[in-house]
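thought: fold this chain, then report.
action: predict
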Amino acid sequence: DSYFSAESTLLALYIFFLMIRRPPRSTLFPYTTLFRSFIILGLYLNLIYFSLRDIKEKYKEAIKKMEKRGI
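observation:
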């Protein structure tokens, strides 16, 4: 009565899972290493950017205080 037989459904599921399986780790290794290095580089650049921004803000505050005091 069903439109699809159990065998054809199982065959379709088997083919589907064969198509979506992950490739071996050795295939992904260069890409994961490259991706990880870009993430680390981005984190370092953010750290440098925010550190420089904080230093600039503190420098501006110090200059304003000195100007108020007349130094």
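thought: worth noting. The CA atoms of residues 24 and 53 lie 43 Å apart.
final: tokens above.
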